[in-house]
Amino acid sequence: MTHSTPTGIPEATVARLPVYLRALTTLAEQGTETCSSEALAAAAGVGSAKLRKDLSYLGSYGTRGVGYDVAYLRYQIGREIGLTQDWPVVVVGIGNLGQALANYSGFRSRGFRVVALLDDAPELHGRQVAGLEVRPFRELSSIAERVDLAIGVIAVPADAAQNVADRLVAVGVTSILNFAPAVLAVPDHVAVRKVDLAIELQILAYHQQRRATEAEGASA
Amino acid sequence: MTHSTPTGIPEATVARLPVYLRALTTLAEQGTETCSSEALAAAAGVGSAKLRKDLSYLGSYGTRGVGYDVAYLRYQIGREIGLTQDWPVVVVGIGNLGQALANYSGFRSRGFRVVALLDDAPELHGRQVAGLEVRPFRELSSIAERVDLAIGVIAVPADAAQNVADRLVAVGVTSILNFAPAVLAVPDHVAVRKVDLAIELQILAYHQQRRATEAEGASA
DNA sequence: GCCAGTTTGTTCTCTCGTTCACAAACTCAT
DNA sequence: ATGAGTTTGTGAACGAGAGAACAAACTGGC
Ligand SMILES: NC(=O)c1ccc[n+]([C@@H]2O[C@H](COP(=O)([O-])OP(=O)(O)OC[C@H]3O[C@@H](n4cnc5c(N)ncnc54)[C@H](O)[C@@H]3O)[C@@H](O)[C@H]2O)c1
Ligand SMILES: NC(=O)c1ccc[n+]([C@@H]2O[C@H](COP(=O)([O-])OP(=O)(O)OC[C@H]3O[C@@H](n4cnc5c(N)ncnc54)[C@H](O)[C@@H]3O)[C@@H](O)[C@H]2O)c1
What we know:
Two copies of one chain form a homodimer. The first copy, chain A, is of the alpha/beta class. Chain A folds into two domains: 11-80, Orthogonal Bundle (Arc Repressor Mutant, subunit A), CATH 1.10.10; 87-198, NAD(P)-binding Rossmann-like Domain (Rossmann fold), CATH 3.40.50. Chain A has nine helices and ten strands. Chain A has helices at 11-29, 37-44, 48-56, 70-81, 96-102, 106-109, 140-146, 158-170, 197-219, and strands spanning 34-35, 62-63, 67-69, 87-92, 112-119, 128-129, 132-136, 151-154, 175-178, 191-194. In chain A, β6 (128-129) and β7 (132-136) form a beta hairpin. In chain A, α1 (11-29) crosses α2 (37-44) and α1 (11-29) runs antiparallel to α4 (70-81). At the A-B interface, α1, α5, β9 and α9 of A face α1, α5, β9 and α9 of B. The structure holds a DNA duplex.
């Protein structure tokens, strides 16, 4: 110990690293070999000062007077996030959303491998979705014995979400991505992130309304 | 002026109001008429102090020694967010994700009305999805003349996203929800929120990896 | 080798958000 | 009515994140 903290990247920075990664990939595809913090920041939609500070948490991977080597920086960020290994993902709830997710090509291209599609409804069992067979939810535990499930994606109705989460936690899943509009209670060692369409829309509606009443007040 | 700022709710608070709203709805469905900040905070998954401070930006809608009237508070938050009116929504890109979104019941139940489904692909035109006919993207402007489009949802591939955004802005849309993994450039008066599955997964992967290396370091 | 120009990494300051703690305000029993 | 018990609303301390600014470090020309 008493060594510089090897871990300890601020949460806000962690949330931006994937954005930088994507910007770097785009630049690499365009044949760019080197880029300045200014250029990368523009591609990622952030300020250059913020970008440099974010990258400084990972180490000193740039060269003063030159900029960053695109391929090298991309590798370093990928390594920090954990994209050198691939993460087995299980999707629970193969309805409208679950099927769209299963068909999403962005999973595999970014180091995530969908290993199982689970659902309660018997009429879905055995059906092929995106090259995988939909299996009964109760097979979760036997699947968990064979593969070391890293991430569980919940795409079931809100009232079933907590139950599914409990079962995922019980078989050792420690990262959950929840699409159901429900607050999940999980043990401390389990990470949950939620994607909530309704919330995003309501935030937009708030600003929309605020702009409207503001304009009205200005004209009145 | 020199009156208490009528607008000016912190962004972080705005993002939580929909969560409180949903918790209140759940409580109301269970027949609860009144609740304390402690109880509501638990249902919303936040601390009670944070909840009270958030609500204090809206006004004093609680009663000391008693708590909050569920129906009344729900109305007040809904009014603040703008749920008393309904917002016309257009979805662009009716592929895997777009179809799932079109079928999402949470839209209408929360004051959002999908008025048009647009796509470029001729083979989709005229097809019925969730009771609406898919129309060519070029009809956007004529639709915008008939209805006052409030929110545009982008569910097209990443390389088409900026173009779609530009067209939406051109017809007067000032709120955009973007599902494509791309950074959108829009004028200042346009609000953009993004939902990015890949980013969420990568954030989870980071924490997963950190836990793994941490445990390894502890045992070594 | 040295100087001008460029770009990073970091420090400092400021703003925003969270948490604590408590007085003010209410209810209810006596 | 009064006092004991609750619960809200908010001021103040605290922490995290954003942005400006600059010294250190590199490149390339001469
Ligand atoms: N459709 C969307 O665009 C969208 C958008 C945002 C959020 N959501 C949310 O995502 C969730 C799923 O939405 P959807 O439109 O796909 O709904 P859906 O009804 O089409 O699909 C839900 C699926 O979950 C399965 N299921 C139900 N209970 C289960 C259980 N206990 N175990 C395993 N499987 C179970 C059902 O059989 C069904 O196939 C909902 O919570 C919804 O609110 C959907
Ligand atoms: N499928 C998912 O679960 C998922 C999850 C997260 C993000 N996304 C993102 O959402 C977007 C859509 O994903 P998808 O799986 O539905 O893809 P998809 O290919 O199934 O659908 C895209 C649709 O957009 C239409 N389109 C293309 N260019 C257009 C244009 N210029 N104007 C109008 N329509 C156009 C296509 O005709 C197609 O129907 C992608 O950017 C994807 O990365 C998808």
